[in-house]
Inverse folding.
């Protein structure tokens, strides 16, 4: 699994844990819904600034987004 895929899996797990839809998170983070979907599917390589926006909405640290899904226990 590539880094972007692992990141997407972890972001998706954190979003679901927060009870947010993709649309809600994208809107609150100020990024397009289509781009956010690409992040979750591991098809985008987001910037640090974009990841900071996502982390802020999820109320987690940037480091929490970057922890691999295996170490976070995220089985989706």
């Amino acid at each position: 699994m590539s880094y972007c895929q692992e990141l997407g899996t972890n972001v998706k797990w954190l979003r679901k844990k927060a009870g947010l839809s993709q649309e809600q998170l994208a809107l609150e983070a100020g990024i397009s819904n289509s781009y956010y979907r690409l992040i979750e599917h591991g098809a985008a390589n987001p910037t640090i600034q974009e990841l900071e926006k996502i982390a802020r909405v999820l109320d987690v640290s940037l480091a929490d987004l970057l922890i691999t899904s295996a170490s976070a226990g995220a089985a989706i």
Summary: The chain has a mean pLDDT of 89. The chain has six helices and no strands. Residues 35 and 44 are 8 Å apart (CA to CA).
